[in-house]
Specification:
Pfam families: NTP_transferase. It catalyses: alpha-D-glucose 1-phosphate + UTP + H(+) = UDP-alpha-D-glucose + diphosphate. Keywords: Nucleotidyltransferase, Transferase. With about 300 residues, the protein is of the alpha/beta class. Helix content is about 30%, strand content about 25%. It has helices at about 40-50, 65-70, 75-85, 90-95, 115-125, 150-160, 220-225, 240-245, 245-250, 265-280, 285-290; strands at about 10-15, 35, 40, 55-60, 105-110, 135, 140-145, 165-170, 180-185, 190-200, 210-220, 250-255, 260-265. A five-stranded mixed barrel has the order 8-11-9-10-12. A hairpin with a 2-residue loop joins strand 2 and strand 3 (about 40). The protein is globular, with a radius of gyration of 20 Å. The N and C termini lie far apart (about 55 Å).
Length: about 300
């Protein structure tokens, strides 16, 4: 195997999806800016990258989602108005959330058509720094004491595999909703070496219960493999196919992260994330402890 040993300096955020499952809320607001309580999904992802020491963030967006770029960058006029009104705390929060160009880099590229996650990653190829890249899907919110991508990069830089994917164990009845690792031997700590991945296998044919979720650290060769990747189902370029192409060359492992993952691409997952985040903040404990008197809707 010929893993690139360079530091992970770039994170790619695929944010071009149109969020149809959250319509009508996403008609005017990008799904990545929907709040988990008072913090947009995208902010969790940005903060996770910051914690990991990422130098450059590349956002693969859609022309209709200009609100994302407005959100990411500092709004000096708005902050000045807030300070004029004495709302320094809110202004400080907005400043801390926004990209500080003196300390970090934000690049935007467009993905005009929904041609798959692999295509989205490939759109970022000309903007990444040399070396392996991290990919963070904001829809997959992972809460924990330490950020998932921080854990992964630490393990990646100490390990041998050139491609690393975040994994969690799921029930046999759930595997058909995920890509699933085909493991080699027993797990070594938090890492599971694998010979491949099976996309959405039937429950009785899944090679393991190690399901792949939305965090990746990939060898730089992924871009060459994506350029040569033939479109698959629905005419999309699949990232998993390109990862599979490089396994013999650079290796693959799954990383069993310590945090809790919420599928915020679904309404139920978004609600679970909101309740969990509220539970982590003492100011909302009284609300969570209240017994609601609202009647349940009839089936």
């Amino acid at each position: 195997m010929t893993k690139t040993s360079q530091k992970v300096r770039t994170a790619i955020f695929p944010v071009a999806g149109l969020g149809t499952r959250f319509l009508p809320a996403t008609k005017a607001t990008p799904k990545e800016l929907l709040p988990v309580l008072d913090r947009p999904l995208l902010q969790f992802a940005i903060d996770e990258a910051r914690e990991a020491g990422i130098e450059r963030m590349v956002f693969v967006s859609h022309p209709s989602k200009s609100a994302i770029e407005r959100y990411v960058h500092q709004d000096e006029e708005l902050c000045a108005k807030l300070r004029e009104k004495g709302k320094h705390g809110i202004a400080d929060t907005l400043d801390s959330f926004a990209i500080n160009p003196a300390e970090e880099q934000a690049h935007f590229v467009m993905q005009p058509e929904a041609l798959g996650l692999g295509h989205a990653v490939l759109c970022a190829a000309d903007e990444v720094l040399p070396g392996p890249v991290a990919i963070i899907l904001p829809d997959d919110l992972i809460m924990g004491q330490k950020g998932c991508i921080s854990e992964m990069i630490e393990a990646y830089e100490a390990g041998d595999a050139g491609h690393m994917v975040a994994t969690m164990e799921v029930g046999r009845d759930e595997v058909s909703a995920y890509g699933v690792l085909d493991p080699i031997g027993e797990p070594e700590g938090q890492c599971v070496n694998a010979s491949g991945m099976v996309e959405k296998p039937d429950a009785d044919k899944a090679p393991s219960l190690h399901a792949v979720v939305g965090r990746y650290v990939l060898d730089a060769s992924i871009f060459d493999d994506l350029r040569n990747q033939e479109p698959g189902l629905g005419g999309e370029i699949q990232l998993t196919d390109a990862i599979a192409k490089g396994i013999e060359r650079v290796g693959l492992c799954g990383f069993r992260f310590s945090g809790q993952r919420f599928d915020c691409g679904s309404k139920a997952g978004m609600l679970r994330a909101t309740l969990a985040y509220a539970g982590s903040r003492e100011e909302f404990h009284p609300v969570l402890q209240e017994e609601t008197s609202l009647p349940m809707a009839a089936e």
